[in-house]
Design a protein that fits this description.
76% helix; globular; 202 residues; mainly alpha
Length: 202
């Protein structure tokens, strides 16, 4: 009888202490600190991944803005890098707004160098908005237009041979059910740069 009581007490002790031991052993990857609950650790892990995604997109926005404004000159070089840094910082908080700011700062240089008609600009802005607004539901949707514009800018430089492989690498790496629309966006952004500057070369 005494042995049975001891086994029951031991079972209760295990039932009450084991969950707390499991919870305390959950490691929070943000700070490598034991979390008080599994839910808290999961929430912090999700925030950690979001921050990594925002950092990646902000770096891409910096590269995109600096490349566009440097390859299609209008602003002084120090101003180009200052604009790129500011847009990158804004892009960390909101990649969608950062992308739109990058496009709007590029428009004056684009118009100055190409002198495209107004209807062509409206079509381009419509396509940019169409593909960019999808990033409000998924930030990953910004990757395709960014890579498309970056490839178009690279095509105007001595490093033109990198533009097509860059786009192909994105197509091959990302294999999802909705990739067709993303790839179309990347191609349209590439042609947005290529067509007017290609026409000027003839």
């Amino acid at each position: 009888m005494k042995t049975q009581i001891l086994s029951i007490n031991h079972k209760k002790y295990v039932e009450t202490t084991l969950p707390s031991l499991i919870n305390s052993s959950v490691i929070d990857k943000v700070g490598i600190i034991p979390s008080s609950s599994i839910d808290n650790a999961i929430e912090r892990e999700i925030q950690y991944r979001r921050n990594l995604q925002n950092i990646f997109l902000s770096i891409l926005l910096f590269i995109l803005t600096a490349t566009l404004l440097y390859v299609v000159p209008l602003y002084p070089v120090p101003i180009v890098f200052l604009i790129a840094i500011v847009i990158s910082l804004i892009g960390f908080r909101s990649p969608f707004i950062g992308f739109l700011l990058s496009i709007f700062t590029f428009i004056p240089a684009y118009l100055y160098q190409t002198q495209v008609p107004f209807w062509w600009l409206l079509i381009n802005l419509f396509l940019v908005g169409l593909f960019a607004i999808r990033s409000l539901t998924d930030k990953n949707n910004l990757l395709s237009p960014i890579i498309g514009l970056l490839s178009g800018a690279l095509f105007l430089t001595p490093y033109y041979f990198l533009s097509i492989p860059l786009m192909l690498s994105v197509v091959l790496i990302r294999k999802e059910h909705n990739e067709l629309f993303r790839n179309l966006g990347m191609c349209f952004m590439f042609l947005m740069i290529l067509i007017p500057f290609g026409a000027l070369s003839f």
